[in-house]
Each structure stands twice: as structure tokens, then as C-alpha cells.
């Protein structure tokens, strides 16, 4: 919660729930990543928060961009990034979108199977491709399942296939799971990546790049490792597994770049109980469908600030829609001041990432989350 955000909310009094982003915090985060990992190029994961002001700031600081769609590519271009600073990092692309990206000058693509390689080979001849490998995601608060990537064994075939199809087999990528609080989580994936490099080298294909993905945590209620701690652990693991043949590396921070830069202002609509002496239910004007989707399974627990004093009592916290899944914290109730009243403002911190982008278009008539970048 920065003074600039406090002052903005005090002076502007925006109506309704909204996210306020402090660009100064984004700038500091970028510079910290740059210092912690000076040998890695930074590709901001646009999906975390694609506000044009954020993209322009990062473009001006020299950032590159990890994009998942042609729309995101166009946003990065509009923000001033040239096409050679853009990676089409989604392993699931329509063939015509590969063509559209190529036509815009993008030459770096993610793949995780031969069918995807064939699309890229047809529509983006000669482009660089990197193959994503599966990663356990253990220790991450927002794990990424098996949807993306293939077994390391298979990645060897996929990259060899790309080479034969006239593409540049460029490297290996993985993602250790979002909000990954263990800085050593990169180690085993780096070991697999080094194996793939060695095997392909023996077959005459020289890979160049390891894409270390995102996963860098933002601070919610618990302490997290700083960028420098991640940097030391990851750079150590790279040296362990690659020796003195160090690959180029890139990182793709999303949450770690913008999470702590944002605060959501919300309002208490109702406080009630289901029976006498039962737990309090607190209903907000923001919920799972207009910004707080990451409370799914209560995975992400945001710091919630009230101006009220007094003892905290456990409350069930719920959103405003008529869908019964629109409950934020129930299994593990959230402590809020006993003095909290209907109409009070609550500030939800650490909400700069994955809020506006997860906000549905007017489900139940609730508008998508408004956002102000200051
Ligand atoms: C979402 C995503 C990221 C960003 O992940 P964070 O955990 O938010 O840092 C990076 N790379 C890829 C390919 C992604 O899909």
C-alpha cells in the first residue's frame, strides 16, 4: 500500500470497486529483477496485467514481452516494443494466429508437440522455437498442472522435428508454477534442460536458450524470497547443470512484476449471520467474477485492510453475484474487525496481477473491474 495509492483514493474517491496500480512499484520491481538476474533477458508475462501504461513503462525500461495471443502481441507493439522483443509463448496457438504473429515480425515461438511445430514451420518459416517441458510445480500456490509442456524425453524429438522442418531449434522452457516460494524449484527442470542440450548437441543441434518462465512470488500475507534470493539459487543451479557452457536465459515474471503494485478498493455490502451466534458473513462488491478469481480453492489469500480498530473475528468473505461459488474465503475464514460495518471500505492489497484480466464481462451485470494506473 503506497502513499501514492492512498492519496489517489482519498482525492479521487472513485465509485465502485476498482484496482489502483502504482507504476513506481512496477519500475522498482523491474529494476530489482534486472539486478538479481543481470545475465537474463526479462520477458514480462503480459497476461498478468496488460494495462497500456504498464506495458509502455516496461517497454521504455527495455523489457521484452511474453504474449499468449495476437491481441497481446498487438498491445506490446502498441506500447513501443519492437517485434524482436516479443515471444509468442503460448504452446496452444491457432495456425492463422502463428501467421499473424509472423506477419507482425515475431520470430520466437513456444511449442510442446510435433503438431504445433508443424503449424509454426508452415506459417513462420525459419523462426526460433523453444520446447516447453512439464514441471512438477511443487511448492507453488497456483500450480500449472499438465496442460503445458511434454516430458523431457519427448522434447528431444520435438526439437529435432523442428530442426528437420527448417526451424531454428532454439531452446527449452518450463514454468515452475505461479507464486513459487521455493527458489530451488528451478533446479530439477534445469537438470532436464541440460540433458536435452547435451543429447541434441551430440546429434548436431546446438540449442542456445533456456526460458526460466515465471513463478516469482509476490508478498501476500506471508514473507517471500526476494528477487536476489531467487537470482542466487537459479544462477547457482544453471552453473551446476551447464558447467561452463552457459546458455542464454530469459525470465518471464508476471505476478512478481505487478502483484504488489496494485490495491483493490471494495465496499462491504452486507454483514449477516445464518443463525444466532453463527459465523459472520461479509459480502463485498467484488468477488470471483469481477477480479478475485485467484481465490479459487482459496489458493491466494490477499491482505485485507480496514480502518476499523477492535478485535478481529473470523468471517466468511463472499462476492456480490448470485452464483454460490462466488465465495472468497470460507474453508479458512478471514479475520476482520468486529467493529466492521455495512458501507465500510476494505482495501485488498497485492492485487496488481491476475485481477483485471480474470474479470468477466458483466456477469450478473457487475461491470469488469475498473482500473486506474497512476
Ligand atoms: C503465466 C505465465 C508466466 C507468468 O507467470 P507468473 O507466475 O505470474 O510469474 C510466465 N510464462 C508463461 C509461459 C506463462 O504462461
Helical residue percent? 25-40%
Average pLDDT taken over every residue: 96
* CATH architecture designation of the largest domain: Alpha-Beta Barrel
Largest sheet: 8 strands, mixed
So what's the overall shape? elongated
Instruction: Kindly report the name of the CATH homologous superfamily of the largest domain.
Output: Alanine racemase
If you consult CATH, what is the topology of the largest domain? TIM Barrel
Bound molecules: pyridoxal-5'-phosphate
Q: Provide the domain count.
A: 2
SSE run: HEHEHEHEHEHEEHEEHEHEHEEEEEEE
Low-confidence stretches: none
User: From the alpha-carbon coordinates, what is the Rg to the nearest angstrom?
Assistant: 22 Å
- Give the strand content: 15-25%
What separation lies between the terminal Cα atoms? 13 Å
Total helices: the number is 10
Task: Identify the CATH class of the largest domain.
Answer: Alpha Beta
Structural class: alpha/beta
Q: How many strands in all? A: 18
Give a quick precis of the structure.
With 374 residues, the protein is an alpha/beta fold. It has helices at 3-12, 23-36, 52-61, 70-78, 95-103, 114-123, 152-164, 187-202, 227-242, 255-258; strands at 18-21, 40-45, 64-67, 86-88, 108-111, 128-132, 140-142, 168-173, 178-180, 209-211, 248-251, 262-273, 280-284, 304-305, 312-318, 327-337, 345-349, 370-373. The chain has 10 helices and 18 strands.
What does this structure look like?
This protein is of the alpha/beta class and 374 residues long. It has two domains: 23-258, TIM Barrel; 260-373, Lyase, Ornithine Decarboxylase, Chain A, domain 1 (Beta Barrel). It has helices at residues 3-12, 23-36, 52-61, 70-78, 95-103, 114-123, 152-164, 187-202, 227-242, 255-258, and strands at 18-21, 40-45, 64-67, 86-88, 108-111, 128-132, 140-142, 168-173, 178-180, 209-211, 248-251, 262-273, 280-284, 304-305, 312-318, 327-337, 345-349, 370-373. The strands form three sheets. Strands 1, 12, 13, 14, 15, 16, 17 and 18 form an eight-stranded mixed β-sheet that branches. It starts with a helix and ends with a strand. The model has no long low-confidence stretch (mean pLDDT 96). The structure holds pyridoxal-5'-phosphate. Residues 45, 47-48, 66, 89, 175, 178, 213-216, 252-256 line the site of pyridoxal-5'-phosphate. Pyridoxal-5'-phosphate (PLP) binds at residues 45, 47-48, 66, 89, 175, 178, 213-216, 252-256.
